[in-house]
Design brief:
Number of helices: 10
Strand content: 5-15%
Number of strands: 8
Oligomer: single chain
Structural class: alpha/beta
Largest sheet: 6 strands, parallel
Strand order of the largest sheet: 5-4-1-6-7-8
Order of helices and strands: EEHHHHEHEHEHHEHEEH
Shape: elongated
Helix content: 40-55%
Radius of gyration: 18 Å
Length: 233
């Protein structure tokens, strides 16, 4: 019996960008961060050097260990990775991401309905470049999502990214439920669907744009379809 529904964030509960759309966002993020580095009195590096380094950093560890954003920025801009400057730079870097974030029309209603039906709920998300969990909790408040779920678990909290089982297990323990009592809803076939299934959860693909019409597993186009699926209707 399903007791909990866990959700990915980006392109599941809120729209941000697809992976192939990240390049111009990264360019804006690096330009703003470089300006702040220079304003803080650091010499910094040339913009083209920073972009070359940033492009090299735009990857994740093969074992799904989370690489903190502050560490990446320190390498890109030749900075000491400590103190307030690191925290401030992370927020500046994330600015272009947060600016385009928009909650989907069906998100609040779906979360409220699940809560009214007695389901436990959580957001379980990777954050871009291992960005600080505190900044994403602030973002979830802005989106009106934070108060509608029972738990928020981000890769920075656990030190591991989806599809690692560690982040799924951490989240379901926060909710006090077993893996087989959980449904995981997300838009990514590897991180969410395969990851959730490997963690012993029932995985549901949300395919808002019809990118995976040939997917043979549980698939919905809108969160309005979720409760009927849970109830077998």
């Amino acid at each position: 019996m399903t007791a909990a529904v866990l959700f990915d964030l980006g392109n599941t509960l809120a729209a941000y960008y697809q992976r192939e759309e990240f390049a111009p966002i990264l360019e804006r993020a690096i330009a703003r961060t470089l300006a702040q580095v220079r304003a803080a009195g650091f010499t910094g590096v040339a913009r083209d050097v920073a972009m070359t380094r940033a492009t090299a950093e735009n990857r994740e560890a093969a074992d799904f260990r989370c690489t903190p954003l502050a560490d990446r920025l320190a390498r890109i801009f030749d900075l000491p990775n400590e103190g307030e400057i690191g925290e401030a730079l992370c927020e500046t870097f994330l600015g272009p991401v947060f600016e385009i974030g928009k909650v989907y029309d069906d998100t609040h209603a779906a979360l409220e309905l699940l809560r009214s039906q007695g389901y436990r709920t959580a957001v379980v998300s990777n954050s871009p470049w291992g960005s600080p969990a505190a900044l994403w909790r602030k973002e979830l408040k802005r989106l009106g999502i934070a108060g509608l779920v029972d738990a928020v678990v981000l890769c920075g909290d656990v030190g591991w990214r989806k599809p690692s089982r560690r982040i799924f297990d951490h989240a379901r323990k926060r909710l006090g439920v077993a893996s087989e009592q959980c449904v995981f809803v997300g838009d990514d076939l590897e991180w969410d669907v395969a990851g959730g299934a490997a963690a012993g959860m029932r995985a549901v693909l949300i395919d808002r744009d019809g990118r995976h019409a040939d997917f043979e597993g549980a698939r919905i186009r809108s969160l309005h379809e979720l409760l009927p699926l849970l109830e077998g209707r």
